[in-house]
Amino acid sequence: MSEEDGDHHSSEATSTNSLSGSHPPDQVLETVLESVLQFLTCRRDRNAASLVCRSWHRAEAFTRSELFIGNCYSVSPARAFARFSKVRSIYIKGRPRFADFNLMPHNWGAHFRPWVSAMARAYPWLEKVYLKRISLTNDDLALLADSFHQFKELELVFCEGFGTRGLSKVAYNCRQLRVLDLSDTEVTDDNVDWISCFPEDETCLESLVFDCMENDINFDALERLVARSPLLKKLRLNRYASMRQLYQLLLRAPQLTHLGTGSFGLIENIQNLDDNQECNYYYSAFAACTSLVCLSGFKDVMPVYLPSIHPVCANLTSLNFSYTNINPQQFRSVIVHCHKLQTLWILDSVCDEGLQAASETCKDLRELRVFPVDADEDIEGPVSEVGLQAISEGCRKLQSILYFCQRMTNEAVIAMSRNCPDLLVFRLCIMGRRQPDSVTGKPMDEGFGAIVKNCQKLTRLAVSGLLTDKAFWYIGQYGKLVRTLSVAFAGDSDMGLRYVLEGCPRLQKLEIRDSPFGDAALHAGAHRYYNMRFLWMSSCRVSRQGCEEIARSMPRLVVELVRYDGEEGSFMEGDSNSFTVLYAYRSLEPPRNDAPESVTIL
Amino acid sequence: MGSFENDLNLEATELRLGLPGTEESEKGNGFRSSNKRPLSDSEAKQDGVEEKGPKAAPSPKAQIVGWPPVRSYRKNSLQQKKADPEAASGIYVKVSMDGAPYLRKIDIKAYKGYPELLRALENMFKFTAGEYSEREGYKGSDYAPAYEDKEGDLMLVGDVPWEMFIASCKKLRIMKGSEAIGLGCGL
Known about the structure:
The complex is a heterodimer of chains A (602) and B (187).
Chain A: H1 10-13, H2 24-37, H3 43-50, H4 54-63, E1 66-69, H5 77-83, E2 89-93, H6 113-122, E3 128-132, H7 138-147, E4 153-157, E5 162-163, H8 164-173, E6 179-181, E7 187-188, E8 207-209, H9 219-227, E9 234-237, H10 243-252, E10 258-261, E11 267-268, H11 275-287, E12 294-296, H12 310-313, E13 318-320, H13 328-335, E14 343-347, H14 351-361, E15 367-371, H15 385-394, E16 400-405, H16 410-419, E17 425-430, H17 445-454, E18 460-462, H18 469-478, E19 484-488, H19 494-503, E20 509-513, H20 519-524, H21 526-529, E21 534-538, H22 544-553, E22 557-562, E23 564-565, E24 570-571, E25 581-586, E26 599-601
Helix pairs in contact in A: 2-4, 3-4, 6-7, 7-8, 9-10, 10-11, 13-14, 14-15, 15-16, 16-17, 17-18, 18-19
Chain B: H1 4-8, H2 10-13, H3 38-51, H4 72-79, E1 92-97, E2 102-107, H5 114-125, E3 131-133, E4 137-139, E5 143-149, E6 154-156, H6 162-168, E7 169-176, H7 177-180
Parallel strand pairs in B: 1-7
Antiparallel strand pairs in B: 1-2, 3-4, 5-6, 5-7
């Protein structure tokens, strides 16, 4: 039972009470226990420890300093904070992942307000907040900045709802701020120069990430900030940073380990500077950054400047070219130097050739993501089964792959399953819906079957292409460690879903869209839903009745039905029996009261 | 893909909201009868894909919401850059605009003609070029796109045939309209 459920099931388990009374030995025992539990950091170990008996439960709750809330609606702040009184870091996740793809209304929920208000009272010593897919406002940030005097780290991933005004409060008030990380987070331009709001003396900043911010910043202020932040190791600029600005910052901060280069193509309007001269300047700036291990950005790349990063390539463990539209030759000229690379994110513009080049050099590769330049279904794609095969042959240590393509074969997928047995994450997105093996014309069942069979550590799987129930039979049969499964346009019948629900004991997150699974399958999984974080089914065959039955028989399961037209971006009119999304999750609380009108909670 | 239709039993995988086994009536339980639903669009288009008939420029398969699963931030970032994958052979020239602090560089070979080039410039620098005529240059705008050719002469963009332009353009400059008067008379 994960800890965000609080006492839900553990109270039933802790019946032993032979240590009743307050004999000194028990006090000593509990104190000793607390001292020992301090060292337990892994939350799953802590959950296990908390189930031993009441005494352990208490001691564990008292010593837990990192609180992880996997679904912000599964437990209320009050309940969570009542159990854990000494929290210093908190992780909260909100919206389900498919909401990123326009399948849910923007005002669906996942607000920070109730959490930050409660935290302000419960944890005045709070140091770290990490939010994923949460909506927060400027006021929330102001409250955060005012309430936590030892605040050190703020990480917002896929969040939105606030602007530069809120940021300025954090910059100004959080004097011990070490980390401000706004990865993939939308920030509105309130016309506030937040960079200038950092304290004037030396800062503790170690990480400043704002690479997805779509507004300009005060560069002079940034340069001064970097100059007075001797501990700065991670800096990721947004696309408004020009080459010259990047150059100046590199000169100021050669100690950087993680760099986001911004545009890598925006050039000052200085008429008489020669390309080669420029490149040499940048080359020497990079050459001075001997600690650089992670490079990203390149959002408006001028390929002619790419050679300037060559000095750092040999040390790079992580390279993110996923916004960088370069061709195979341009890519090859960089990748051949990257022997130590472990993480590589690229666009399919590098083609199978580029993947081949990567497979020849990056023998230590652990994570690969290949994104499409053209997220379209009807085109000839530049990467295919050839690239996948090459990677599998060259990068035997691969643990995680996300691969968008227009064509794929079972053979290549099977090859990967054999060559890369350490895979933990396999996400293949064949962009044409229900597309079969492009050589044999058969379904992709065997390929995915081989993955679950041969990659025995697999915890996350995303399937695509033409798939029959057989594929799901394989998953149920072999995917014993799978925790996250994403399904789209796949399967023949209810049996497909049943195989998975009955066969995968570790399944936590199941997201399905546009697949022919209906009420019978939904009911067949009832025994699983309390042990899962959530179930998402959109545009499948479940009916309102079926959902109502589940909701009735499972009082601790919140069943939300959403009516949302992603195309129109609006609440769908129409008869109230219809819905587009079923989102069900376990919760210790009564259903939330902050849902918009497009959401019906059964 | 043709012969698979029968084997695939498309009917069974036909997507709709409703209890399995119900008849194919539009008004089944839970099925909304409106042609706005992406679902109905995709059903219609499924047949269209197999055909590949002589329809000139068939409308693309209806874009299904959220598919392929690429976040919109990423999609928008890449919209601007559908660069030619063979850009290694491209001709990059600097583009400046009077009064703007930054230069850009573009590959003029990536464009098929003046209209495309002008549109791209307008998007990049957020201005409108106005109407071009041989005699009067660019009318109706504060800015005029000009270029410097191999001989160092400043010319109005559009004055020479496209192929000649590609071969002779060294750099582009978006000038203030007032300064551009008199250009183009050099021909």
